[in-house]
Amino acid sequence: MSNTSKTNFSVAIFFATIFLLAESIYTIQLTIYPKTAQSKNATSFEYAVVLGIFDASIAICSPFVATMIDSTRSSAQSVLISSLLVEGASLILFGFMDKINDLQTFLGASIILRIIEGAAASAVFATVFTLVSEYFPGSFGIFFLGVLESLTPAGFVLGPLIGANFYSFGGFSAPFVVVGCLFILFAGVATFVLPKKENSNTSDPGNIKKCGEKEEINISLWKQPAVLANFIAIFLTSSVITFYFALIEPFLRIEFATSPSVIGFVFTGSGLLYSAFSVVASLLMVAVGSSGYLFQGAILIGLAAQLVGNCAIVGIGIDRFRFTYLYGNKLQASSNFITAGNKFNVSDE
Questions:
Q1: Which residues are listed as membrane-spanning (predicted)?
Q2: Which of 29, 194, 260, 341 could form a disulfide with 164, with the two C-beta atoms 3.0–4.6 Å apart?
């Protein structure tokens, strides 16, 4: 194997690792934060805001990160390293939120840190995609971007396992401190692993003109019905998933006296079904077409949500394993909805 091949392999492994770790941040706290928040008399709405503000921060900051990389002299490598350091520091600080006794201070500090974590995560995602395009042009780069996308459900699987197991061994701070230190470690690794490249985003009038053309194209894309439908589908599906994330942990813990480790496995099983059915749904779209699957995915989500909701309200005597199955089916339908929406977008264009 040549030195170039070894370097490219190391870079690919590095990108995949930090991408997976960044995707797991959201679900790390699902098995432990609601319990800690409730112990401080926080309502479900209050800690749900803390859970959801992370994704909101990513959604708001992502366009600005991409614009910053395009319009400033900052290289993507330096932005990535800085974002890894910020992510690690904010996670370590978040690990000590349980030491705050005052509820308002606890919630306020949690929200601020989660916003910072989301902003840093958006920078990680944006710079990784940018650097993959630079380092791996051609067919392998396209394939590797697909591999990175497949790590999203894998992060959903990894996060609860990290959160629950480290919580069992070291308390609330353990998972956040460990993962935060890993981010800081990877920031140092990045300085040695990533090949040095000259930043092409200088004040070149040609580059500025191209950026303006890209902005016009991006705005025109939102006028396409297929793009708008795809956006609405993904937004609603993500809303449903995050809604369950805020309620599943206290429901299992209170109704069934379930330990954090078992709750972590519930989320893990759901993530595995999410990942597996995404592949099945993609193959199904290729084989038979995407017509109607966006609507059918929405119906499946509604039916699965009714099943879980009725179990929680009526109390029909389910055990934790049946509940895991129902919740997994709900996420399975969600992945069908997302995948169908993406295929619907592509086919209509």
A1: 12-33, 45-69, 75-94, 106-132, 138-162, 174-194, 227-248, 260-287, 293-318
A2: 260
Q: Which token pair is 155?
A: 């992060």
Q: What are phi and psi of 197, to 5 degrees?
A: -130, 145
Q: pLDDT tens for residues 190-221?
A: 988 887 665 544 444 444 444 445 445 555 66
Residue 17: domain span: 1-215
Same domain, 163 and 291: no
Residue 47 and residue 185 in one domain: yes
CATH code of 93's domain = 1.20.1250.20
Q: Are residues 8 and 35 in the same domain?
A: yes
Give the number of other Cβ atoms within 10 Å of residue 82's Cβ.
15
Cα–Cα distance for residue pair 202/70, rounded to 1 Å: 9
Domain boundary (215, 233, 250) is at 215
Instruction: Give which of 278, 279, 297 is closest to 337, Cα–Cα.
Output: 297
Q: Please, which residues have CB within 8 angstroms of residue 272's CB and are 6 or more apart in sequence? A: 153, 157, 328
Enter the tokens of residue 32: 């432990």
Q: What one-letter code names the amino acid at 316?
A: I
pTM of the model: 0.71
3 state SS of 96:
coil
Note the pLDDT tens digit of each residue in 116-152. Answer: 999 999 999 989 988 888 888 777 777 787 778 777 7
Q: How far apart are CA 67 and CA 63, in angstroms?
A: 6
Q: In this structure, are residues 148 and 19 in contact, taking their beta carbons and an 8 Å threshold? A: yes
> Is 26 in the same domain as 58?
yes
> Which token pair is 267?
């989320």
Nearest to 33 by CA among 255, 346, 331, 253: 253
Task: State how many domains the chain has.
Answer: 2
Taken as a whole, the chain contains a residue count of 349
Do 227 and 203 share a domain, yes or no?
no
Among all chains, which residue has been given the structure tokens 């995602």? 125
